[in-house]
Amino acid sequence: MPTSDTPAGGATSGPKGTTLPDRKLDSWGEIASYLGREVRTVQRWERTEGLPVHRHEHKKKSTVYAFAGELDEWIRKRQPKDDPAADDAFAYEQELSGTDSPIDIVEPPAGSPAPVPTADSVKTPAAGKRVIVAIFTLAILSALSLGVYRWLQPTISPVGKVRIAVLPFTYVSGDSKPDYITDGLTDVIRTALSQLDPQHLGVIAATSSKIVAGKPITEIGRVLNVSYVLEGSVQRAGNQVRIDVQLIQVSDETHLWADSFTRELSDVLQVQSDVSAAIARQILATLPLPPQPPSPVRGGTVHAATPEIAQSRHAYHQGKFAWGNRYDLRSSIAYFEEAIREDPSFAEAYAGLAGATAILGQVPNDGMPPGEAKPKAREAAQRALQLNPRLAEAHAVLGNVAMSYDWDLATAEKELRRAIELNPNDPTPHEWYCHLLNVQGHNSEALAEAHHALDLDPVSPLFHDVLAETHYFGRSYDATIEEALQIVKLHPGDMSAQFWLGSAYTQKKMYAQAVETFQRARQLSGDAPVMLMAYGYAQAFAGNPAEARSALLKLQQLRSSRFVPSLYPAAIHVALRETDEAFRLLELAYQERVDRLVYLNVEPMADPIRSDPRFAKLMTKVGFR
Fold it and tell me: 409 and 403 in contact (C-beta within 8 Å)?
């Protein structure tokens, strides 16, 4: 593609056939406006068809410009078949705008550049293939399900708060797809914007942004309830990496700002830091935020991108992906541990390891005895804070550990509120603070936190599960059923939604529906212990003690090969009215430090034993006075 700084002279003919003096277009926005297309379309034309765009190269970034005469000549010779993807967008834009192509295209371009290699043409390592397959599968499921999410009503944002989504940056050329560049850049930018002005700028979380990526801008704006979208691409040529980024206003799809940055790939981590800082400064200058912004944003100093550091970041982002849906915690832990091995000073990887380990040891995952999970999670979180005392994620994990394993509700509140203060745009601390409020019986405040998490991650099934759970603890069973049914329509394999749906049916004495729901959940989960417990509990109340005892036997058999909390058989004995055995097992669960004991304070399943003095004594031991 042309890169000369020397302009072509002479008169030019504009898109509508008018004769113009030689005209220089000084930005992607001007180039796109001249051609009557979107910025991303003309950027794609430059990458794939050699649209004549020039660059002023600087040390830290490059600026683009073009000449009208060269663009006219390129358009005159262009064939649509040269870039089917671009022309699909081209036709779509014409359909929306009602405009015709500016010039009839009659002959192919002369001297078109050779196509740039893509990730598809290069061998990908086996581990990378598995990740790509997983991402591809999620993308397909997300695309199929996005339409169903029309039932979602966007949460009303705080008055005066500007909302933006950072879509995953795309990788458009190179040898093998370097996820640590694209994922890392997207994550760093999202983090920078989240910390920019949290009281006035809301940044949508990664899960929802990934689900809607590729949808029309207006659809993204409606589903995520955002006014602005930031998107970009990364292109690699040898040891150079070019990052193109644009800020789009959703209401009219205006491109408010676009820029390009070219740097050495060997310095990619510093590039991520510098580019995110530059974008943050531009956001401050462009969006309608208050006139007194926080202190100036500067790029940080980061490690050089050695192969070890690059692999560490790659493993970290794979771990974050696995952590995002909470269904593959062991893989998440393995990736975070790899990231730490490659870079022992990587604070975020320690925080990720802490979070995944803490959750693995809790109901309903039960993948590690609580006595083993607690010290590992705490140690990793404390190490993260030694490396970065302002890391919100690590404070959130300490709050989770204090609540779930120590039953120290005061410390839990302090740590979770600190995490929210440091990063109000992270939905996970709001989720865990919601749980804390639930166990204390503050249901209205818990609902507010659940909605706050959803406001930040609107189409994440995880936070819809949390909303269904919170309705359940508030004993709003109809609301629980309504929310859970909507999740199950989208994600039939979502175990949490199945659990809360069946639990609400049980409390409404709709035992046939409860048993059916838990039977289905048992099949989908491969007889997960928590589903066996819920099934046995429902069967006991349905008047089928033999089925309840069958579930008890199955739980006992599972204990020979894995950790099964004593809380589970205790619950079935509660339903069978075998109170003494239930309390014996609850005492064992206390010794095991099973996290869910603290929830018994508000758990409807405990109602049959709530008036027993032994129950009040148990609640005192887990932190309630």
Answer: yes
Element (H, E) at 65: strand 62-67
Q: What is the mean pLDDT of residues 256-271?
A: 78
Q: Is the dihedral of CA 29, 35, 38, 44 positive or negative?
A: negative
Q: What is the mean pLDDT of the chain?
A: 80
User: Pairing state of beta strands 162-166 and 24-25?
Assistant: unpaired
What is the predicted pLDDT for the residue at 306?
A: 73
The CATH number for 306-407, chosen from 3.30.200.20, 3.30.750.24, 3.30.1360.170, 1.25.40.10, is: 1.25.40.10
For 421, the 3-state DSSP assignment is helix
Quick one: CA dihedral 535, 549, 367, 392, positive or negative? positive
Residue 358 and residue 404 in contact, taking contact as beta carbons nearer than 8 Å: yes
- Looking at this protein, which amino acid is placed at residue 576? L
Q: Is the pLDDT of residue 78 over 90?
A: no
Q: Among the listed ranges 142-146, 294-298, 480-484, 533-537, which one has the minimum average pLDDT value?
A: 142-146
Q: Which two tokens stand for residue 542?
A: 């349905």
Dig out the tokens for 600 from the structure. Answer: 């018994």
Q: With bands split at pLDDT 50, 70 and 90, how would you rate the model's confidence at 416?
A: very high
Q: How far apart are CA 194 and CA 189, in angstroms?
A: 8
Q: What angle do CA 190, 335, 194 make, to 5 degrees?
A: 10
Q: Which CATH number fits domain 126-288: 3.65.10.10, 3.40.50.10070, 3.30.420.10, 3.20.20.220?
A: 3.40.50.10070
Instruction: Indicate if the pLDDT at residue 61 is higher than 60.
Output: no
The values of phi and psi at residue 494, to 5°, are: -75, 105
For the stretch 24-34, pLDDT in tens is 777 776 787 67
Q: Tell me the two tokens of residue 411.
A: 């410390």
Whole-number pLDDT of residue 22:
53
Q: What is the DSSP string of 346-392?
A: -HHHHHHHHHHHHHHTSTTT--S-HHHHHHHHHHHHHHHHHH-TT-H
Mean pLDDT of 98-107: 32
- pLDDT band at residue 242 using 50, 70 and 90 as cut-offs: confident
CA angle 606, 609, 611 (to 5 degrees): 115
Q: Give the separation between CA 190 and CA 170, rounded to whole angstroms.
A: 15
Q: How many CA atoms lie within 13 A of 192 on its CB side?
A: 27
The amino acid at 222? R
Integer angstrom CA distances of residue 415 from 375, 424, 449: 17, 13, 16
Q: What is the DSSP annotation of 243-291?
A: EEEEEEETTTTEEEEEEEEEEEGGGHHHHHHHHHHHHHHHHHHHS---S
- Prediction pTM value: 0.73
pLDDT tens-digit readout, 551-590: 999 999 999 999 999 999 999 999 999 999 999 999 999 9
CA neighbours within 13 Å on the CB side: how many for 550? 9
In 236-259, which positions are buried (b, 16+ CB within 10 angstroms) versus exposed (e)? beeeebbbbbbbbbbeeeebebbb
